[in-house]
Known about the structure:
Helix content is about 25%, strand content about 30%. The protein is built from 6 helices and 13 strands. The strands form 2 sheets. Strands 1, 2, 3, 4, 11, 12 and 13 form a 7-stranded mixed β-sheet that branches. The model has no long low-confidence stretch (mean pLDDT about 95).
Amino acid sequence: MAIRVLAIGDIVGRPGRTVVGEKLPALVRQHRVDLVIANGENIAGGSGITTNLFNKLRAYGVDVVTLGDHAFKKGDIIETLGRSERIVRPANLSRHAAGRGSTVVETAHGLRVGIVCVLGRVLVPTMQASDPFEAIERALSEMPRAHVVIVEVHAEVTGEKAAIAHWLDGRPETKCALVYGTHTHVATADARVLPGGVAFISDLGMTGPHDSILGRRKDMVVRAMSTNMPHPYDVATGESRLCGIVAELDEKTGRAVSIERIEVAGSSVHPAYDADDHAKARD
């Protein structure tokens, strides 16, 4: 039985989570999706995630939430990271870091899907991450047996994401069928199934305000970059889009059958923030 996975790119602020709530149920029906994974590390005001917002994503129909370099920006999420198997922070952080770097969940048909998240090391200065290759290898060795495995690489550099995908391609013992990138907020045009059966795309793109610079107000970003003076990068408003991929994975072979990029327009959202965006950040 094939497993159909919908992976949603970085959700930015209220506009991003609103379009997920609007469009996800129809996408699941249209594409006959068995499992929904979404990167939620920018969901709270553009940086971080809270327990309340994690619960909202779960209520919308997201099965597993992944994180990246802003995983611990909101201290409120720490307890949830230690408790829930439905939220995954990067696996290549300290073993003392809160939460888990991988998980295994079951679809409605009883098929087990392993999910591993790692942080890139090139041009991602926020955290001191260790070797992502080693972290993936360790997570796979410690993971309960899964029918297929999905790896998210939250990284800045395309080549680093591609290197991990090609390293995993053609290794049937890993059961890795899908590798995708997040973090850059720009969807790439390289979705394909590699020769060894791993589906790959360098970046899923951003789920949030479309008329923006990476989800932030254009005027503020341009002003900061053109003057070298600090300006807040507020979340933009206007039409939002949900970006990601739908992949079909073969549970018998542990290989991908297909991968297709999706982009769905949502409604305009005003204002860009609400009370959920202003939870206290970590000291």
